[in-house]
Description:
BirA Bifunctional Protein, domain 2, Herpes Virus-1, Rossmann fold, 5-stranded mixed β-sheet, 7-stranded mixed β-sheet, alpha+beta
Amino acid sequence: MSSTKPTMEDIVSLSKRRGFVFQSSEIYGGLSGFYDYGPLGIELSNNLKQLWWDAMVHAKDNVFGVDGAIIQNPMLWQASGHVAGFADPMVEDTVTHKRYRADQLAGVDSTDLTELAKLLEHKKSPDGNPLGKPRSFNMMMQTWVGPIEDDAAKVYLRPETAGSIFTNYLNVKDTMRAKLPFGIAQVGKAFRNEISPRDFIFRVRELEQMEMQYFINPKDQEKVYEEWRQFAWNFLISTLGIKESNLSWHEHGDTERAHYAKAAHDIYFNFPQGPKELWGTHNRSDFDLTNHAKASGKDLTYTDDKSGEQFTPYVIESSVGLGRMLLAVMTDAFDRDEVGGEQRIVMRFNPKLAPVKAAVSPLLKNKPELVDLARKVYAQLKSEFGSVLWDDNGNIGKRYRRQDEIGTPYCITIDFESLDNNTVTLRDRDTAKQTRLSIDELSQNLREGLRGN
Protein backbone atom coordinates (compact mmCIF):
# COMPACT_ATOMS: atom_id res chain seq x y z
CA MET A 1 0.00 0.00 0.00
CA SER A 2 1.36 3.39 -1.01
CA SER A 3 1.62 6.26 1.45
CA THR A 4 1.87 8.92 -1.26
CA LYS A 5 -0.55 11.75 -0.59
CA PRO A 6 -2.58 12.67 -3.69
CA THR A 7 -2.37 16.16 -5.14
CA MET A 8 -5.46 18.22 -5.79
CA GLU A 9 -4.83 17.60 -9.49
CA ASP A 10 -5.02 13.85 -8.83
CA ILE A 11 -8.41 14.21 -7.13
CA VAL A 12 -9.83 16.64 -9.72
CA SER A 13 -8.67 14.45 -12.61
CA LEU A 14 -10.13 11.28 -11.10
CA SER A 15 -13.38 13.07 -10.26
CA LYS A 16 -13.90 14.18 -13.86
CA ARG A 17 -12.61 11.00 -15.49
CA ARG A 18 -14.71 8.63 -13.43
CA GLY A 19 -17.88 10.63 -12.86
CA PHE A 20 -17.59 11.86 -9.28
CA VAL A 21 -17.64 15.66 -9.71
CA PHE A 22 -18.07 17.86 -12.80
CA GLN A 23 -17.69 21.60 -13.27
CA SER A 24 -21.21 23.07 -13.27
CA SER A 25 -22.49 24.14 -16.73
CA GLU A 26 -19.14 23.06 -18.16
CA ILE A 27 -20.20 23.32 -21.83
CA TYR A 28 -20.63 27.08 -21.26
CA GLY A 29 -17.28 27.50 -19.55
CA GLY A 30 -18.52 26.72 -16.04
CA LEU A 31 -19.22 29.12 -13.18
CA SER A 32 -16.71 29.68 -10.41
CA GLY A 33 -17.68 28.13 -7.09
CA PHE A 34 -20.37 25.78 -8.44
CA TYR A 35 -20.05 22.03 -9.10
CA ASP A 36 -22.28 19.14 -10.16
CA TYR A 37 -22.05 15.66 -8.71
CA GLY A 38 -21.87 12.90 -11.31
CA PRO A 39 -23.25 9.33 -11.14
CA LEU A 40 -20.61 8.12 -8.68
CA GLY A 41 -20.39 11.40 -6.76
CA ILE A 42 -24.10 11.42 -5.96
CA GLU A 43 -23.90 7.81 -4.75
CA LEU A 44 -20.94 8.64 -2.52
CA SER A 45 -22.57 11.81 -1.15
CA ASN A 46 -25.87 9.98 -0.51
CA ASN A 47 -23.98 7.28 1.40
CA LEU A 48 -22.25 9.95 3.49
CA LYS A 49 -25.52 11.71 4.27
CA GLN A 50 -27.25 8.47 5.19
CA LEU A 51 -24.48 7.35 7.53
CA TRP A 52 -24.44 10.77 9.20
CA TRP A 53 -28.25 10.77 9.53
CA ASP A 54 -28.27 7.24 10.93
CA ALA A 55 -25.64 8.13 13.55
CA MET A 56 -27.00 11.58 14.35
CA VAL A 57 -30.77 11.01 14.29
CA HIS A 58 -31.76 7.35 14.02
CA ALA A 59 -29.31 6.14 16.67
CA LYS A 60 -30.45 8.74 19.22
CA ASP A 61 -33.72 9.11 21.08
CA ASN A 62 -33.56 12.87 21.47
CA VAL A 63 -32.38 14.25 18.11
CA PHE A 64 -35.07 15.10 15.55
CA GLY A 65 -34.78 15.98 11.89
CA VAL A 66 -36.20 18.93 9.97
CA ASP A 67 -35.90 20.25 6.42
CA GLY A 68 -36.27 24.01 6.38
CA ALA A 69 -36.89 26.22 3.34
CA ILE A 70 -33.89 27.76 1.60
CA ILE A 71 -35.59 31.19 1.66
CA GLN A 72 -36.79 32.40 5.06
CA ASN A 73 -38.26 35.62 6.38
CA PRO A 74 -35.39 38.15 6.16
CA MET A 75 -36.01 39.12 9.80
CA LEU A 76 -34.40 35.78 10.72
CA TRP A 77 -31.08 36.84 9.20
CA GLN A 78 -31.29 40.30 10.77
CA ALA A 79 -31.82 38.77 14.21
CA SER A 80 -29.00 36.26 13.74
CA GLY A 81 -26.56 39.02 12.77
CA HIS A 82 -25.97 37.77 9.24
CA VAL A 83 -27.29 40.89 7.48
CA ALA A 84 -24.94 43.12 9.46
CA GLY A 85 -22.00 40.84 10.06
CA PHE A 86 -21.78 37.84 7.73
CA ALA A 87 -18.74 39.21 5.97
CA ASP A 88 -15.24 38.39 4.83
CA PRO A 89 -12.44 40.98 4.58
CA MET A 90 -11.90 41.89 0.92
CA VAL A 91 -9.15 43.79 -0.88
CA GLU A 92 -9.07 44.94 -4.50
CA ASP A 93 -6.28 45.12 -7.08
CA THR A 94 -6.33 48.83 -8.00
CA VAL A 95 -5.38 48.12 -11.63
CA THR A 96 -7.27 44.95 -12.62
CA HIS A 97 -10.04 45.42 -10.01
CA LYS A 98 -9.85 41.74 -9.14
CA ARG A 99 -10.99 41.04 -5.59
CA TYR A 100 -9.24 38.83 -3.07
CA ARG A 101 -9.69 37.68 0.51
CA ALA A 102 -7.57 40.13 2.50
CA ASP A 103 -6.83 37.61 5.26
CA GLN A 104 -5.49 35.10 2.73
CA LEU A 105 -3.17 37.63 1.10
CA ALA A 106 -2.00 38.72 4.54
CA GLY A 107 -1.43 35.13 5.66
CA VAL A 108 -3.44 35.42 8.87
CA ASP A 109 -6.78 34.16 10.14
CA SER A 110 -8.31 37.50 11.05
CA THR A 111 -11.20 39.80 10.13
CA ASP A 112 -9.70 42.87 11.83
CA LEU A 113 -9.55 45.45 9.03
CA THR A 114 -7.01 47.64 10.87
CA GLU A 115 -4.65 44.72 11.40
CA LEU A 116 -5.08 43.59 7.78
CA ALA A 117 -4.43 47.09 6.43
CA LYS A 118 -1.07 47.20 8.27
CA LEU A 119 -0.08 43.73 7.06
CA LEU A 120 -0.98 44.52 3.44
CA GLU A 121 0.45 48.04 3.40
CA HIS A 122 3.50 47.11 1.31
CA LYS A 123 2.16 43.98 -0.38
CA LYS A 124 1.12 43.59 -4.01
CA SER A 125 -1.73 41.65 -5.57
CA PRO A 126 -1.03 38.27 -7.23
CA ASP A 127 -0.74 40.25 -10.49
CA GLY A 128 1.91 42.52 -8.97
CA ASN A 129 -0.28 45.62 -8.61
CA PRO A 130 -1.01 47.91 -5.63
CA LEU A 131 -3.87 46.95 -3.33
CA GLY A 132 -6.70 49.09 -2.06
CA LYS A 133 -7.89 49.34 1.55
CA PRO A 134 -9.37 46.17 3.07
CA ARG A 135 -13.14 46.32 3.56
CA SER A 136 -15.92 44.00 4.61
CA PHE A 137 -17.89 42.10 1.99
CA ASN A 138 -21.25 40.55 2.94
CA MET A 139 -21.53 37.05 1.51
CA MET A 140 -25.32 36.75 1.64
CA MET A 141 -26.87 36.05 -1.77
CA GLN A 142 -29.94 38.18 -2.45
CA THR A 143 -33.08 37.66 -4.49
CA TRP A 144 -36.64 39.00 -4.48
CA VAL A 145 -40.03 37.51 -3.67
CA GLY A 146 -42.98 38.81 -5.66
CA PRO A 147 -43.32 40.84 -8.86
CA ILE A 148 -41.49 44.01 -7.78
CA GLU A 149 -37.75 44.05 -7.12
CA ASP A 150 -37.50 46.56 -4.30
CA ASP A 151 -36.20 46.53 -0.73
CA ALA A 152 -39.57 45.40 0.63
CA ALA A 153 -39.37 42.24 -1.50
CA LYS A 154 -35.69 41.51 -0.84
CA VAL A 155 -34.88 38.12 0.68
CA TYR A 156 -31.76 35.98 1.00
CA LEU A 157 -30.69 32.52 0.06
CA ARG A 158 -29.76 31.02 3.40
CA PRO A 159 -26.03 31.21 4.21
CA GLU A 160 -26.32 28.31 6.67
CA THR A 161 -28.90 25.68 7.58
CA ALA A 162 -28.97 26.49 11.29
CA GLY A 163 -31.36 29.45 10.95
CA SER A 164 -34.48 27.37 10.36
CA ILE A 165 -33.46 25.02 13.17
CA PHE A 166 -33.64 27.86 15.69
CA THR A 167 -36.94 29.19 14.35
CA ASN A 168 -38.39 25.67 14.59
CA TYR A 169 -37.20 25.13 18.16
CA LEU A 170 -40.68 25.62 19.64
CA ASN A 171 -42.39 23.58 16.92
CA VAL A 172 -40.13 20.59 17.49
CA LYS A 173 -40.25 20.89 21.28
CA ASP A 174 -44.05 20.94 21.28
CA THR A 175 -44.84 18.39 18.55
CA MET A 176 -42.27 15.84 19.73
CA ARG A 177 -42.89 16.56 23.44
CA ALA A 178 -39.13 17.00 23.71
CA LYS A 179 -37.41 17.61 27.03
CA LEU A 180 -33.94 19.09 27.40
CA PRO A 181 -31.47 18.06 26.30
CA PHE A 182 -32.59 17.51 22.70
CA GLY A 183 -31.23 18.24 19.26
CA ILE A 184 -32.52 19.25 15.85
CA ALA A 185 -30.63 18.05 12.78
CA GLN A 186 -30.79 19.11 9.15
CA VAL A 187 -29.09 18.36 5.85
CA GLY A 188 -29.48 20.98 3.15
CA LYS A 189 -28.09 23.54 0.74
CA ALA A 190 -26.60 26.87 1.77
CA PHE A 191 -25.27 29.70 -0.37
CA ARG A 192 -22.32 32.01 0.22
CA ASN A 193 -21.07 34.61 -2.23
CA GLU A 194 -17.43 33.74 -1.60
CA ILE A 195 -14.92 36.35 -2.77
CA SER A 196 -12.52 33.73 -4.09
CA PRO A 197 -13.81 30.14 -4.30
CA ARG A 198 -10.88 27.74 -4.43
CA ASP A 199 -9.47 24.27 -3.88
CA PHE A 200 -12.06 22.41 -5.96
CA ILE A 201 -15.12 21.59 -3.79
CA PHE A 202 -13.46 22.73 -0.55
CA ARG A 203 -14.66 26.36 -0.76
CA VAL A 204 -17.66 26.92 -2.99
CA ARG A 205 -20.62 29.25 -3.37
CA GLU A 206 -23.29 26.56 -3.24
CA LEU A 207 -22.70 23.98 -0.54
CA GLU A 208 -24.52 21.31 1.40
CA GLN A 209 -24.32 21.24 5.18
CA MET A 210 -25.03 18.59 7.78
CA GLU A 211 -25.76 20.38 11.03
CA MET A 212 -27.20 19.60 14.43
CA GLN A 213 -28.06 22.11 17.15
CA TYR A 214 -28.30 20.58 20.64
CA PHE A 215 -30.35 22.51 23.20
CA ILE A 216 -29.19 22.13 26.79
CA ASN A 217 -29.28 23.50 30.31
CA PRO A 218 -26.34 25.95 30.57
CA LYS A 219 -24.97 24.10 33.60
CA ASP A 220 -24.29 21.05 31.40
CA GLN A 221 -22.40 22.91 28.69
CA GLU A 222 -18.86 21.65 29.32
CA LYS A 223 -19.78 17.97 29.57
CA VAL A 224 -22.10 18.03 26.55
CA TYR A 225 -19.61 20.01 24.48
CA GLU A 226 -16.95 17.33 24.99
CA GLU A 227 -19.43 14.58 24.14
CA TRP A 228 -20.21 16.13 20.76
CA ARG A 229 -16.53 16.72 20.05
CA GLN A 230 -15.97 13.01 20.64
CA PHE A 231 -18.96 12.12 18.46
CA ALA A 232 -17.44 13.92 15.48
CA TRP A 233 -14.01 12.34 15.96
CA ASN A 234 -15.44 8.84 16.37
CA PHE A 235 -17.71 9.18 13.35
CA LEU A 236 -14.86 10.11 11.03
CA ILE A 237 -12.64 7.27 12.21
CA SER A 238 -15.02 4.46 13.13
CA THR A 239 -17.92 5.02 10.74
CA LEU A 240 -16.18 6.47 7.69
CA GLY A 241 -12.86 4.71 8.20
CA ILE A 242 -10.71 7.84 7.81
CA LYS A 243 -7.14 7.39 9.02
CA GLU A 244 -6.57 9.03 12.39
CA SER A 245 -3.18 10.24 11.16
CA ASN A 246 -5.02 12.55 8.73
CA LEU A 247 -6.97 14.26 11.53
CA SER A 248 -6.09 16.82 14.18
CA TRP A 249 -7.85 19.25 16.52
CA HIS A 250 -7.72 23.02 16.21
CA GLU A 251 -9.08 25.17 19.02
CA HIS A 252 -10.28 28.62 18.01
CA GLY A 253 -8.37 31.45 19.61
CA ASP A 254 -9.94 34.67 20.86
CA THR A 255 -9.62 36.39 17.48
CA GLU A 256 -11.07 33.40 15.57
CA ARG A 257 -14.05 32.62 17.76
CA ALA A 258 -17.41 34.24 17.05
CA HIS A 259 -18.21 36.92 19.63
CA TYR A 260 -21.05 34.86 21.11
CA ALA A 261 -19.18 31.52 21.25
CA LYS A 262 -18.05 30.12 24.58
CA ALA A 263 -15.83 27.54 22.88
CA ALA A 264 -15.07 26.35 19.35
CA HIS A 265 -13.05 23.43 18.01
CA ASP A 266 -12.52 22.27 14.44
CA ILE A 267 -11.35 18.87 13.33
CA TYR A 268 -8.72 19.52 10.67
CA PHE A 269 -8.18 17.04 7.84
CA ASN A 270 -4.94 16.82 5.90
CA PHE A 271 -6.36 17.84 2.50
CA PRO A 272 -4.17 17.99 -0.61
CA GLN A 273 -3.71 21.73 0.01
CA GLY A 274 -2.76 21.13 3.65
CA PRO A 275 -4.55 20.78 7.01
CA LYS A 276 -7.89 22.63 6.86
CA GLU A 277 -11.13 22.67 8.81
CA LEU A 278 -13.55 19.79 8.20
CA TRP A 279 -15.96 19.51 11.15
CA GLY A 280 -16.79 22.15 13.74
CA THR A 281 -18.12 21.78 17.27
CA HIS A 282 -19.17 25.09 18.83
CA ASN A 283 -20.74 26.26 22.06
CA ARG A 284 -23.06 29.01 20.78
CA SER A 285 -24.25 29.96 24.31
CA ASP A 286 -27.82 31.35 24.39
CA PHE A 287 -27.09 33.85 21.61
CA ASP A 288 -29.46 32.42 19.00
CA LEU A 289 -32.60 31.84 21.04
CA THR A 290 -32.14 35.12 22.93
CA ASN A 291 -31.88 37.14 19.71
CA HIS A 292 -34.79 35.38 18.02
CA ALA A 293 -36.93 35.87 21.12
CA LYS A 294 -36.22 39.61 21.10
CA ALA A 295 -36.84 40.01 17.37
CA SER A 296 -39.97 37.83 17.15
CA GLY A 297 -41.56 38.56 20.52
CA LYS A 298 -41.88 34.83 21.20
CA ASP A 299 -40.99 33.31 24.56
CA LEU A 300 -38.18 30.85 23.86
CA THR A 301 -37.25 30.14 27.45
CA TYR A 302 -37.46 26.65 28.93
CA THR A 303 -38.89 25.63 32.28
CA ASP A 304 -37.48 22.52 33.92
CA ASP A 305 -40.33 20.24 35.07
CA LYS A 306 -38.51 18.99 38.15
CA SER A 307 -36.76 22.07 39.50
CA GLY A 308 -39.05 24.76 38.10
CA GLU A 309 -35.91 26.57 36.89
CA GLN A 310 -36.51 28.85 33.88
CA PHE A 311 -33.72 29.72 31.46
CA THR A 312 -32.85 30.25 27.82
CA PRO A 313 -31.19 27.07 26.55
CA TYR A 314 -27.60 27.04 25.44
CA VAL A 315 -26.80 25.44 22.08
CA ILE A 316 -23.97 23.07 21.19
CA GLU A 317 -23.52 22.96 17.43
CA SER A 318 -22.08 20.08 15.40
CA SER A 319 -21.54 21.13 11.78
CA VAL A 320 -19.81 19.62 8.75
CA GLY A 321 -19.92 20.41 5.04
CA LEU A 322 -20.84 17.50 2.80
CA GLY A 323 -18.49 18.61 0.00
CA ARG A 324 -15.54 18.82 2.38
CA MET A 325 -16.39 15.44 3.84
CA LEU A 326 -16.55 13.94 0.34
CA LEU A 327 -13.21 15.53 -0.56
CA ALA A 328 -11.69 14.21 2.67
CA VAL A 329 -12.99 10.70 2.03
CA MET A 330 -11.64 10.71 -1.54
CA THR A 331 -8.25 12.03 -0.40
CA ASP A 332 -8.03 9.48 2.39
CA ALA A 333 -9.02 6.59 0.08
CA PHE A 334 -6.75 7.50 -2.85
CA ASP A 335 -3.85 5.10 -3.25
CA ARG A 336 -1.32 3.90 -5.81
CA ASP A 337 0.20 0.45 -5.75
CA GLU A 338 1.35 -2.38 -8.00
CA VAL A 339 -0.58 -5.54 -8.87
CA GLY A 340 1.02 -8.20 -11.03
CA GLY A 341 3.82 -5.85 -12.03
CA GLU A 342 1.32 -3.20 -13.17
CA GLN A 343 0.73 0.19 -11.54
CA ARG A 344 -2.83 1.02 -10.54
CA ILE A 345 -4.83 3.75 -8.81
CA VAL A 346 -7.21 2.31 -6.24
CA MET A 347 -9.79 4.11 -4.13
CA ARG A 348 -9.84 2.23 -0.83
CA PHE A 349 -13.27 3.40 0.31
CA ASN A 350 -14.82 1.89 3.39
CA PRO A 351 -17.22 -0.64 1.75
CA LYS A 352 -20.18 1.09 3.42
CA LEU A 353 -19.23 4.26 1.51
CA ALA A 354 -18.28 2.77 -1.87
CA PRO A 355 -20.53 4.24 -4.60
CA VAL A 356 -20.57 0.85 -6.37
CA LYS A 357 -20.70 -2.26 -4.17
CA ALA A 358 -19.87 -4.88 -6.81
CA ALA A 359 -19.30 -5.31 -10.53
CA VAL A 360 -20.40 -8.37 -12.49
CA SER A 361 -18.66 -9.47 -15.71
CA PRO A 362 -18.84 -12.34 -18.17
CA LEU A 363 -15.29 -13.38 -19.02
CA LEU A 364 -16.12 -12.96 -22.73
CA LYS A 365 -18.99 -10.82 -23.93
CA ASN A 366 -19.35 -12.71 -27.24
CA LYS A 367 -20.23 -16.01 -25.56
CA PRO A 368 -24.04 -16.06 -25.01
CA GLU A 369 -23.91 -18.82 -22.39
CA LEU A 370 -21.52 -16.76 -20.22
CA VAL A 371 -23.52 -13.57 -20.73
CA ASP A 372 -26.81 -15.29 -19.82
CA LEU A 373 -25.49 -16.67 -16.54
CA ALA A 374 -23.74 -13.39 -15.73
CA ARG A 375 -26.98 -11.50 -16.33
CA LYS A 376 -28.79 -13.75 -13.86
CA VAL A 377 -26.12 -13.19 -11.22
CA TYR A 378 -26.18 -9.45 -11.92
CA ALA A 379 -29.98 -9.24 -11.58
CA GLN A 380 -29.88 -11.16 -8.30
CA LEU A 381 -27.18 -8.93 -6.77
CA LYS A 382 -28.71 -5.71 -8.03
CA SER A 383 -32.04 -6.57 -6.41
CA GLU A 384 -30.25 -7.17 -3.10
CA PHE A 385 -27.52 -4.53 -3.04
CA GLY A 386 -28.77 -1.84 -5.43
CA SER A 387 -25.57 -0.21 -6.59
CA VAL A 388 -24.13 -3.02 -8.71
CA LEU A 389 -22.54 -2.47 -12.14
CA TRP A 390 -22.51 -4.58 -15.28
CA ASP A 391 -19.07 -4.41 -16.92
CA ASP A 392 -18.17 -6.31 -20.12
CA ASN A 393 -16.03 -3.66 -21.82
CA GLY A 394 -12.39 -4.57 -22.53
CA ASN A 395 -10.33 -7.44 -21.22
CA ILE A 396 -10.75 -8.60 -17.63
CA GLY A 397 -7.59 -6.81 -16.46
CA LYS A 398 -8.86 -3.45 -17.74
CA ARG A 399 -12.20 -4.04 -16.06
CA TYR A 400 -10.47 -4.70 -12.74
CA ARG A 401 -8.39 -1.52 -13.05
CA ARG A 402 -11.48 0.52 -13.89
CA GLN A 403 -13.36 -0.82 -10.87
CA ASP A 404 -10.33 -0.30 -8.61
CA GLU A 405 -10.23 3.34 -9.66
CA ILE A 406 -13.83 3.95 -8.61
CA GLY A 407 -13.43 1.99 -5.39
CA THR A 408 -15.66 -1.03 -6.10
CA PRO A 409 -14.94 -3.51 -3.26
CA TYR A 410 -15.71 -6.69 -5.24
CA CYS A 411 -15.65 -7.90 -8.83
CA ILE A 412 -17.51 -11.08 -9.81
CA THR A 413 -16.47 -12.90 -12.99
CA ILE A 414 -18.45 -15.64 -14.69
CA ASP A 415 -16.22 -17.93 -16.77
CA PHE A 416 -16.45 -21.37 -18.40
CA GLU A 417 -15.96 -23.15 -15.09
CA SER A 418 -19.08 -21.33 -13.88
CA LEU A 419 -21.10 -23.23 -16.48
CA ASP A 420 -19.81 -26.56 -15.18
CA ASN A 421 -20.12 -26.16 -11.41
CA ASN A 422 -22.15 -22.98 -10.75
CA THR A 423 -19.21 -21.13 -9.18
CA VAL A 424 -17.81 -17.65 -9.80
CA THR A 425 -14.58 -15.79 -9.13
CA LEU A 426 -14.83 -13.14 -6.40
CA ARG A 427 -11.99 -10.59 -6.53
CA ASP A 428 -11.16 -8.35 -3.57
CA ARG A 429 -10.29 -4.73 -4.45
CA ASP A 430 -7.72 -4.13 -1.74
CA THR A 431 -5.72 -7.34 -1.97
CA ALA A 432 -6.54 -8.30 -5.58
CA LYS A 433 -6.98 -11.83 -4.20
CA GLN A 434 -9.41 -14.04 -6.14
CA THR A 435 -11.61 -16.62 -4.45
CA ARG A 436 -13.74 -19.33 -6.03
CA LEU A 437 -17.18 -19.77 -4.48
CA SER A 438 -20.63 -20.96 -5.46
CA ILE A 439 -23.29 -18.60 -6.71
CA ASP A 440 -25.46 -19.67 -3.76
CA GLU A 441 -22.79 -18.38 -1.35
CA LEU A 442 -22.21 -15.10 -3.18
CA SER A 443 -24.84 -12.90 -1.51
CA GLN A 444 -23.85 -13.92 2.03
CA ASN A 445 -20.17 -13.34 1.30
CA LEU A 446 -20.88 -9.90 -0.09
CA ARG A 447 -23.08 -8.96 2.86
CA GLU A 448 -20.32 -9.88 5.28
CA GLY A 449 -17.63 -8.15 3.24
CA LEU A 450 -19.63 -4.94 2.89
CA ARG A 451 -20.12 -4.88 6.65
CA GLY A 452 -16.35 -5.08 7.04
CA ASN A 453 -16.14 -8.72 8.13
